[in-house]
UniProtKB/TrEMBL annotation, chains A, B:
Annotated organism of origin: Strigops habroptila
Statement: the UniProt record of this protein carries the keyword Cell inner membrane: no
Molecular functions (GO terms): sodium:potassium:chloride symporter activity
Protein name (record): Solute carrier family 12 member 3
Domain Amino acid permease/ SLC12A: 4-82
InterPro entries reported for this sequence: AA-permease/SLC12A_dom, SLC12_C, SLC12A_fam
GO biological process: cell volume homeostasis; chloride ion homeostasis; potassium ion homeostasis; potassium ion import across plasma membrane; sodium ion homeostasis
Membrane-crossing residue ranges in chain numbering: 7-40
SLC12A transporter C-terminal domain residues: 92-215, 269-479
Keyword RNA-binding applies: no
Taxonomic classification: Eukaryota, Metazoa, Chordata, Craniata, Vertebrata
Top-level division of the source organism's lineage: Eukaryota
Main location: membrane
Length: 480, 480
């Protein structure tokens, strides 16, 4: 009752204020609104006290609960990313890439899997989680950080895929780094990596995979260089996705606190710079929309092209087509894209996608998979079975032939070779290439799959984003 | 540029409107504000279109991310609950209890563990999750629903404890129902149940356990009675926590869609009524604050006592003390509670808590644990070891004696017997009793622990809430 009387009194005061001298009242209001706007814009680092914090919590909670009432619809689709960064400061480029296109738009959740028993890892996880969140804030990335203790990488990611997020704010795309050192690692590690991709598809998620040009990785941060100096991390020389991930695990397995484990040190360490923090100018983003899986491969580069440093970039779309119908096909694609309200600058038809690549390129692919081949054509059956038992990831002759025979199928080594040639021809100097991620059958040897990925993306200068949706539509004609 | 010009034009229009006829302008503004207020208050079920939904998402996301910048502090502590309801419609009382004290205040997350392989369970989980969320909305409970597929109940709850939630909105108290049928179930099931409590403490979480009077459980909902009619669910007759949980699993294990699996049926089914939906009038809430663990046992009943149907309830606090210092101790407690700004109506000192209970009550406790005893005093060592191997949950004579010897320790059977006597004396007619949850050592047989819980809470009419914090302070003196 009392509070309503107070509100009434306040309203009356405002009315009287205007009645007495309306212009003075306007000036007073103007000053107040200007000051409020200034404070909201500047967001000064002031502790507004616990009642502000409490109302922040209440608003976050109420809006999140209210979101549950929104029905799912293709109009509401947002690429919500679960970024498998490990400790985020080990992967500034992956963090920046996802942070750029999700900023003010959709959920980004950096995640870290700690391998071990959760009772042992828990205190450490508590300690570092806060530091990682602070690090993300300092980098101005609007993201959450979460870690999980699991027996192995894959089961940890499964846990995250199943339970991370709240209500409608749940990730639907895991984002991974490209596993550069796949030829050196154990078969279990390879199995885990490809298994994560399969799990994501099983869970009706899309997948996004990022490959940087070799050597162009972000400068290692303090924590990382300190680690490198100890010289006893397996694979610490190559800054590959897994090496960094493993390094994270390795640091985590020590008992004593290490440099970057201290939250304050972590937040204050020098921030590594990546290409996502630089003006991209009038470079071009090329999208190779070869196999549709719901439009995700169009959506993510489109979103990226509307952000700060990428705003001036041209976006070109490449689709495959027949040489004698190029003009018609181009018209169809242009009209389709305009219905989706995606304003791309150029559309190209690739008529020569199914050409046979020259033998020397095929040979390079064969050389790549040679160490992983079973060569069962030259061995008797007992030996073959024995090897197959021990090394299920070995590639049999039949599999090579089978994959070579199905010309039209995505999962064909020589198609990747051909695509790589096309990419080298058309997009060598682009800022970014987005291309559909090839997928493999479940039984396909992991090393053969990784060889496709490597072949597809090798020797290219630009940043490469391999994207695959899950046949869930992410674009729509309907405006209302 | 254009949008700023438009804003400027709009502002000028408003100014001119006031300059021309100020009273007409005020009336126009008044009508608009009234209509806006009416719509915001009524929240009509209208689809405001995708731009409203989009801004709802953005606000939820931005506030949630902003929350990460709030440092953790005892002033910000909120009891955020992970409610182990199984399918929420099987546990309307548990849902209502937590929903009542968390409403507009803190996070409530209903969770369901589906036992099995996640690839098989996933489609079903997708189907039902939406229905459960709708059911919660229809019941006007502001809660999230999440499910997880795991090998067993305990590992599923571990997954939820580790990863559920987002940023600062993460549960810190699992809420369970009391396991009424602990004497009938397998030792593995008992191990899982008590293990969940231990896991929660290991993870620095509090725990809350609810026991309803036998027979006063909420009327089973349609889905449930339909299940009961099939008559082949183990334990379907007793509406215990686990029976309902198992029923949920059982329904889930069928291939075809069942009545309550259909989301629309689920949301439209008749809502079971519970005591939390009724005016409690001038009844009393009694808090037995016997062993402090951070003040959680005071906080939850206090929050409950400030909600709609419980607003008129008196709250009494019972603490143990010495008979010759009762007045001094009472003064200390009253001043402590007033510093915490908890306005409780009565404080009682219990001087007779360590009295020895009468032998017939002790005997009843001994009878309760008799079926679970190893009786190793009368057997030779080899037999004892053999039984111990097969049934690690059996209670050895030594354990009974040890627990009987430590008079001062919480984990003593006869203390629970004595507490039960006190509860029967003082609080038989109260609306709700909140009491500290006893804890056990890790090695303590599960059946002995469950016997304590049963002994402590048996024969009582009111709803019993067993609460234990984790030595983390939840109350503070400091106002600013």
């Amino acid at each position: 009752m009392l509070k309503w009387a107070a509100l009434f009194g306040a309203a009356i005061s405002v009315v009287i204020m205007f009645l007495l001298t309306w212009w003075a009242a306007f000036i007073a209001f103007g000053i107040v609104i200007f000051l409020l706007g200034y404070i909201l814009y500047k967001k000064p680092d002031v502790n507004w006290g616990s009642s502000m914090q409490a109302s922040l919590y209440n608003m976050a909670l109420n809006y999140s609960v209210g979101l549950s009432q929104v029905d799912e619809h293709v109009k509401n689709y947002r690429p919500q990313c679960l970024v498998l960064t490990g400790p985020p400061n080990f992967h500034p480029d992956l963090v920046d890439f996802v942070g750029t296109f999700t900023k003010n738009l959709s959920l980004m959740l950096c995640s870290n899997v700690l391998i071990g028993l959760w009772k042992q890892k828990m205190p450490e996880s508590r300690l570092t989680a806060d530091g990682h969140t602070k690090w993300l804030m300092k980098r101005k990335i609007k993201a959450f950080y979460t870690d999980v203790v699991a027996e192995n990488l894959r089961s940890g990611v499964q846990m995250l895929i199943q339970t991370a997020g709240l209500g409608k704010m749940r990730p639907n795309i895991p984002v991974l780094g490209y596993k550069r050192n796949w030829r050196m690692v154990s078969s279990q590690s390879l199995e885990d990596y490809v298994g994560i991709l399969h799990d994501a598809f099983d869970f009706k998620y899309g997948v996004c995979l990022m490959r940087m040009k070799e050597g162009s990785r972000a400068a290692p941060s303090i924590g990382w260089s300190w680690l490198g100096a100890t010289q006893n991390i397996p694979g610490s020389k190559d800054y590959s996705w897994e090496a960094r991930f493993i390094a994270g695990l390795w640091v985590g397995s020590r008992d004593g606190p290490l440099i970057h484990v201290n939250p304050t040190t972590l937040a204050s360490e020098q921030q590594a710079s990546t290409i996502f923090q630089r003006e991209q100018g009038k470079k071009t983003i090329d999208i190779y929309w070869l196999f549709d899986s719901g439009g995700l491969a169009l959506l993510i580069p489109y979103l990226l092209g509307h952000k700060k440093w990428w705003g001036k970039c041209k976006i070109g779309v490449f689709v495959s087509g027949q040489i004698n119908m190029m003009d018609e096909e181009k018209k169809v694609i242009v009209s389709l894209l305009s219905k989706f309200r995606l304003s791309f600058h150029e559309v190209h038809i690739l008529p020569d996608i199914s050409q046979k690549p020259p033998p020397e390129h095929i040979k390079r692919f064969d050389d790549l998979i040679a160490p992983f081949r079973l060569n069962d054509g030259f061995k008797d059956e007992a030996t073959v079975n024995e090897i197959r038992q021990g090394c299920p990831w070995k590639i049999s002759d039949k599999e090579v032939d089978k994959n070579r025979a199905k010309v039209a199928v995505v999962m064909w080594g020589s198609l990747q070779v051909r695509l790589n040639e096309i990419l080298l021809d058309y997009s060598q100097d682009m800022a970014l290439i987005a291309i559909t991620l090839p997928i493999s059958r479940k039984g396909c040897p992991r090393s053969l799959y990784m060889a496709w990925l490597k072949t597809l993306s090798q020797d290219l200068q630009p940043l490469i984003i391999l994207i695959r949706g899950n046949q869930e539509n992410t674009l729509t004609f309907y405006c209302q």
